[in-house]
Amino acid sequence: MTTLADHGPGEYRVTMRRVVRSEWTKLRSVRSTWIVLAAAALLTVGLAAAFGYGYGQQIHSGAVQPSTAEAAKAAFLGLDLFALVTGVFGVMRMTGEYGSGLIRASLVAVPRRLPVLWAKALALAAVTAPVAVAVSVASFLISQAFAGSHGAGLGDPGVPRAILGAAAYPVAAGLLGLGIGAILRHTAAAITVFVATLMVITAVLEAALSQPVQDAVVKYLPVVAAQALYNLGGAGPVKLLAPGVAAVVLAGYVTVLLAGGAALLQRRDG
Amino acid sequence: MIEIQELTKRYGTTVAVDGLSFAVRPGHVTGFLGPNGAGKSTTMRMIVGLDHPTAGTATVAGRPYREHAAPLRQVGALLEAKTFHKARSARDHLLALAQTHGIPVTRVDVVLAMVGLEEVGRRRAGGFSLGMAQRLGIAAALLGDPAAVVLDEPVNGLDPDGVLWVRGLLKSLAAQGRTVLVSSHLMSEMALTADRLVIIGRGRLLADTSIGELIARAGVGSVLVRSPHATDLRDLLVGEGATVTSAEPGTLQVDGLTAEAIAGLAVDRGLAVHELTPQRASLEQAYMQLTRDAVQYRDQERVMSS
User: Fold this and answer.
1) In this complex, is the C-beta atom of B12 within 8 Å of any C-beta atom belonging to chain A?
2) Alpha helices in chain A, H assignment, sequence order
3) Quick one: DSSP state of residue B217?
4) Phi and psi of A9, rounded to 5°?
5) How far is B82 from chain A (nearest CA, A)?
6) Which of A21, A49, A190, A255 is the most exposed place for a label (fewest CB within 10 A)?
7) Cα Rg of chain B, angstroms
8) Do strands B14-24 and B204-210 pair parallel, antiparallel, or not at all (unpaired)?
9) Chain mean pLDDT for chain A
10) Residues of chain B with C-beta less than 8 angstroms from the C-beta of A97
11) Is A13 an 8 Å CB contact of chain B?
């Protein structure tokens, strides 16, 4: 067999940097990565245009007073859809490997295992973050353009923070999905749990709980905490956390799920 | 060198591997044999750290696989045919594995060529036949130019050409001084490639031996003899204590004497011999004998649980 030139110990050592490169190759070498992200991004920006138009009409008819708060609401109303897609995409990073059997090859190459999960998280964030920023900025600009002369501008108070928050949400959703995927390993189960915890529980609790309890609890749910990141005030059905607190809460969810996935990945048979 | 010591794996109340100890030395092809469900795959998965042992250890070059800084340099493993994403090309699949170790892309093309997939390397691996998938798995195992290879049923799904190629590959890897552990449930396949045999049943070691020793243990194998003087030769051999049967005129089935002994006796008497073939079937019989209990036990369990 042709040999591999080896110039001493360490030349072919597994490093975090190398595992990240490997995970990046896995991401970029499957065409569906780009198709899914591009389609979801276009759809989300399209929704922002539609909501922006609606917002413009409401201002025109006098139903709504123009404000940056209302402008941000119109811009990011469709964001849950994008977060749903990045979340499922995150789930698939892990469950796809279990489904295909690739995970065995990955864990034999990196038998310490945890670098695989961390590298997946980094690669996932690296691919979703630029798209999320682009979607967030484009959503805001296009919705304001459709809102007509009353639209808000990028420099208006709070708007940069809202745009950043709107970009952080889909990235966090992707990482939540990755953690759930690592814990559950099966695509259907993990997607169900992801959709249930992120989308369904919020709606159920809002309906089931009494108002005071609701006000105390619902704001800590992942989707509601995410909303707080890009909300600029104004009347809403639920109370929201302050953006800084919301960011910590959301990061907490990501940390707990990824840590849970890591613990199970380490302990279970591959 | 792969060392297995008191290795045990339990799944709930089922014992898959039960206090197994053996060593796989470099420079030989070691066949890992046992009936289906004997614990071969589980043992191999524990060698590369995929399954955690309930007790005991499996070490590669003196330490657990996962503790090596560059594990793919130590062991290349083929554990099941399809361990790749269907939508990814064979080349990108191997590249992703190579990158974990900083192995250059040139090496990916080298192993693709070695397994004969260079033409289809850029195609979706999902469209591969079982044989091609198996070749891709072998390419992945060779990626790190490893000191040892662990291959679970590598000829599964291969066409006759592919089977021949794997046999040659295993022998050349061993000849280069590598450690080669290859599993099969077919003695006939191992008889053609393996020098050493580790035979297990119900997760326990049944034999750690060479092919020659295994035959010897089962008694002298029978020898097929074809001779124009079959009648004279039969009398001669029976006189020497052999058991001789004849299925057709001119051929003898001789038990109790080696081919060398038969040839010596025939030469002494000036009897021409046209064919003298030690019957490999006896190896198969020795194996069947060894594993019969394990298989019977399993069949009984199946009957009882059904």
Assistant:
1) no
2) 16-28, 31-61, 68-76, 79-100, 102-109, 114-147, 159-184, 187-195, 201-208, 211-217, 222-230, 243-267
3) H
4) -60, 140
5) 6
6) A255
7) 23
8) unpaired
9) 92
10) 85
11) yes
